[in-house]
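re: ur question from yesterday

yeah so i grabbed the chain u mentioned. its 98 aa long if i counted rite. heres the sequnce exactly as i have it in my notes:
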Amino acid sequence: KNRDVIIGAMERCRTGKRRIPALLPGEATVAHKTGSLFNTSSDIGIVRTPDGRAFAVAIYVTGQGSRSNREARIAQLARAIYEGYASGEALQYRTAMR
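ran it thru and got these structure tokens back, copy pasting raw so excuse formatting
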């Protein structure tokens, strides 16, 4: 039940549209929570692929010039992680490690 409360709050997050969700395909769903401090931007979340698989991601960026640059970097990293996970490479790696 506690998990449902936290994930529900993350699903309703209204900030960070230019962070984790920005470059993900429309069919991906994201529950996330953003954070910002002086010269830093972050976003943590759970990303679900269209086939129902999910992964957790936490990205913390410092520097990079402006906030928009940091947000763009978060979006780029999230997209790269999504592509690697969605391609099945993560599954192949996990299977190889058994």
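noticed a couple things. The chain has a mean pLDDT of 90. also Strands lie at 29-37, 40-48, 54-62.
anyway ttyl
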